[in-house]
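Assess the record.
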Amino acid sequence: MNDSKISMRYAKALYLAAADLKAEDAIRTDMETILELMAGVPEFNVFLSNPVMASAVKLDILKNVLYDKIHELSQQFLSLIINSKRESFLKIMALNYVKLYLERKGIKHAEITTVYPLEKQTIAQLQQTLGTYLNSDVEISEKTNAKLIGGFVLKVDDLQFDASVASKLAQIKQNLIIK
């Protein structure tokens, strides 16, 4: 079975269990915490993917470090993943859970990339405008990238609107080369 099918099945099962307990929001927060931990602490990934370390040892460490911060269902889910030797899929499972959560709640996720962080008022206006345009609730995550030079790049689902100075310069350069 391929990785994406495994990950999606676990994510769906977790979502259904969370829905039964009315804990979808708490589990989403837990999955985002795990994703942040995986992105911010490379040692955590090494720890999870260590094939020599026994599952019981991994569980003990997780109980000491993480379990007091997450919902009981997330604790059970992590125990299941580790005991099933599926910890290498945890990141994809967590991403799939968040994706399912947003889909089921009718929330669109937008990502805006700018050279400098945007003011909260600007983000709120963008969120309101996108919500009206998409006829949906919208969550916005923000990134910065100095290589854009100016402007912004907005991604919503599979769509991307690139209004950056860097892309405009690249287009001008391409047009000059062609002519």
